[in-house]
Amino acid sequence: MSNQITVIAEVRRYDPGAAEPPQYQRFEVTGMDSMRVLDVIRSIYENQAGDLAYQFACRVGRCGTCAVKVNGVPVLACQEKCKPNMRIEPLTPFPVLRDLVVDRSEVEARYAALKLTPQRESKHPGKPEHISPQLAEKLCHYDLCLACMVCVAACPAVEERPFDGPAFMLKLRHMAAHPADSADRLEQALDAGMLECFNCDVCTQLCPADLSPAQAVRDFRKQMIFGAGERT
Amino acid sequence: MAEQPEVVVESADILIAGSGAAGMRAAIAGHDAGAKVVLLAKGPRRANHTRMSGGRYNAVSGGNSKDSCEAFYRDTVESGMDINNHELARVLAYEAMDRAYDLEAYGLAWDRTEAEKYYMSMTGGGTFVRTLGSIDEGIGITEVMLHQLHARNVTICDFHMLVDVVVGDDGRVAGGLVLDLSRGVWRFYRCPTVIIATGGTSQLYETSSGPAINTGDGIAIALRAGAELVDIEFMQFIPISFVYPPSARGYTLTEPAHYGMRHFDPNAEAAHLVNNQGERFVLKHDPVRKEGSTRDVLARAIMIEILEGRGTPEGGVLMLPDKQVFEAFLKERPTYIKRLLENYGEGQARLEAPIQVMPSALYTLGGVRIDAWCRSCVPGLYAAGEAAGGVHGANRLGGSSMPDIQVFGRRAGTAAAEEARARGPVAAGAGMARARARAAELEAGMSRADGIRPVEVKKRIQKLMWDHVGLVRSGPKMEDTLRQFREIRSQVLPSLRVTAKSRVVNREWMEAIELENLLDIAESMASSSLLRKESRGAHYRTDYPDMDPAWTANVWVKRNGSSLQVEKRAVVGAEATRAEAAPKKVVA
To answer: Which fold has domain A105-226?
Structure first.
């Protein structure tokens, strides 16, 4: 069913509070070739480096907290299959707490500032709210965003321009699609740098939840030119 | 004693431990009732068990005219084998729908068949089509709730682990001792109320479905603070989970795939389960409901096949899925189809080829004993959600944990806010000496040069629990296991070593603290399982294989100094009338 593999992993070690500069530590891990990157990291922690700082919780691609960079590409460690040679680094451009663990406080503050609750003009009716089955399905799909920050880490526009990043565009589009929301989400998207997106679609290609933040940007741009139309 | 570490003092009206839906719903209710709320997440706030759930939600929405709240209550108690706290079960049944509307008000969209008509299906064990859902909505439920907390500006502390609840000289909660794992700093939150919403303790088992953070911290903390546990001998195992790859072993394979057409029709058959001889072994255990039986029966039936050598080489049995439900499954659970495809293959993902499945520890049925407003017996200490016990009895209906965390999360937050207001702020200095002493105790592992790593001890406990206090139990094995737990406590815990010297995100230090919690619950589970000399629901003993009517009762666990006191007690509220179960005003 599965063969053995020995992988070489170079892990970025860094403690911002200590004097030593960042360094890459080399580990060899042998296991089943179906191992995920997280299996490799856990094996290193359990057998070779008890002082390694790393983060995971669900191990099945739902909590979104184990994201790292493998050979320069942001991925969910629990979903990415291991490779014979891997350089494993913390997700950029976020502040590192230690080793592979990043501080997401700024991300949460950004979400909070966008007020991502439906801005209701009237209260929920206390019975099923009028939402078409198709729109409900669409809202549910938007809801699958893990907030893992893989797309933000991969986005070339985030790196070069004043752009909050793809994940935030997706959430704003989610709210724009919600029938009870009365806020001007296009205005917010513009403020968050929506026009800086290159439309390269890297976010779509890497999204672990198979969502397309780039499409959200395209939808906002269409709305900017042609108007919002019906919420369907 | 080691040098006393510095403890930073903070304050709140309500301190909530746990960032899953129970904690978040308590925070919303507490904040809306005017309290200053601080919510602690042991990891990043999105690392919680609710998020891993499929989000199926049992509630009587009016969409099935034959169904009623009373029928939901009866299903809950029948599934719980009559030992549920009936009052809690009624509250669940009668309030679930209002809380489902709250979630929709927060921004969640339940699946629909028409603009104002919800899509409904069936899950494990119910007798009516009543379960609401939305696509993979454990994630959606936590997202809409999190944004509600953001909108209210509730303080959320990531990487903050509740270590102990400190009770003052007056016998009331004085605050919570917290380790800020992101900085390695001790904090004491002076507060009149603490809500335990830390979820369950599935990490006690070798193979489990939940997140790595579910080490039963809050349940153990409550026990140490003087609260009682109830039904802690009952651990729910999900019958249908992934067998491989190693990283996903034990993760729930969800019910639509298993339930087949029974997902929509109570009279239809569920997917057949066969052993390596092609035999439908479930028929031996439940010839009436067959594979549509409750989770406890199915999980045990599968485990017995595996233990007796009739499983697959990888340690599972085969489920023969019904491809008729593929389209519905794909719509409801696209992520699960993707996982089946990645881990098993296209035939399995299309529900055309046999799928290997195994049981896995899913849900802690017991927990902190609470009243209908989530109060424990310690004034100021509350519990809600998986950390609390009594709602589900000996077995839980699939789809009932989502309404549980909403209904009781809200009740805990509402009642705690009222108590905090009535009591006023805690006196400065109260509980500080105890908090400092406890922090000093937990610093010890950090300075020990030699010793045993926590991860090794955790694996030993997990193996013991899986083998002897899991699906198939017996008196002599549990007595021996209990002896080994006591030995670990006296011999091994004092010699734990933490490798890293850094105080920042020190996983081993966290695991060392978790170990004591795991061990507290492991001992409680083994002790209460020994006392219950019968088999019922999730609790099955080979030496007492039958249900005994004399045991239509609960087991309470309480700490008495350093030993556990285990007692048989009468079931609460079996005689309660429907009128009494209607929501009442909170009396602090």
So the answer is: Fumarate Reductase Iron-sulfur Protein; Chain B, domain 2 (1.10.1060)
Residue ranges, CATH 1.10.1060.10, chain A: 105-226
Q: Which pLDDT tens digit goes with each residue over B69-102?
A: 999 999 999 999 999 999 999 999 999 999 999 9
| Chain A residues within an 8 Å CB radius of B109 | 131, 135-136, 139-140, 143, 178
Q: Which of B44, B47, B39, B71 is nearest to B58 (CA)?
A: B71
Beta bridge partners of B8: B187
- One of 3.10.20.30, 3.30.1490.20, 3.10.180.10, 1.10.10.60 is the CATH number of A4-102, namely 3.10.20.30
> What per-residue confidence (pLDDT) applies to B578?
42
| Chosen from B101, B118, B143 to mutate, greatest number of chain A CBs within 10 A | B143
Question: Residues of A with CB below 8 A from B159's CB?
Answer: 97
Residues from chain B that touch A129, judged by Cβ atoms under 8 A, are 104, 116
pLDDT at B524 over 90: yes
- Interfacial B residues in 25-54 facing A (CB < 8 Å): 43-48, 51-52
Longest CA–CA separation in chain B, Å: 69
* Full domain range(s) for residue B165: 7-235+362-430
Tell me: pLDDT of B584 over 60: no
Q: Is A32 on the interface with B (CB under 8 A)?
A: yes
DSSP of B75-119, one letter per residue?
A: HHHHHTTT-S-HHHHHHHHHHHHHHHHHHHHHT----EEETTEE-
Size of interface A-B (CB pairs under 8 A): 212
User: For the whole model, what pTM was predicted?
Assistant: 0.95
Q: Please identify, among B328, B360, B392, the residue that sits at the C-terminal boundary of a domain.
A: B360
Question: CB–CB of B508 and A123 under 8 A?
Answer: no
Going by C-beta distance under 8 Å and a sequence separation of 6 or more, which residues neighbour residue A42? A54, A56
Within this chain, do residues B154 and B42 fall inside the same structural domain, yes or no? Answer: yes
Q: Are residues B563 and B553 in the same domain?
A: yes
Alpha-helical runs (H) found in B186-254: 217-225
From B95's Cα to the closest Cα of chain A, the distance in A is 13
Q: Does the CB of A146 have a partner CB in chain B at under 8 Å?
A: yes
Whether B351 and B391 map to the same domain: the answer is no
Question: In which residue ranges of chain A is CATH 3.10.20.30 found?
Answer: 4-102
Is residue A65 less than 8 Å (CB to CB) from chain B? yes
Worst-scoring range by mean pLDDT, A9-13, A32-36, B274-278, B335-339?
B335-339
B153: in domain: yes
Residue in chain B nearest A177 by alpha carbon: B107
Distance CA B403, CA A160 (A): 45
**Which contiguous run of DSSP H or E holds residue B304?**
helix B295-307
Q: Does B112 touch chain A (CB under 8 A)?
A: yes
Using the 3D structure, point to which of B373, B407, B430 is the last residue of a domain.
Answer: B430
The secondary structure of residue B490, as a DSSP letter, is: I
ipTM of this complex prediction, to 2 decimal places: 0.96
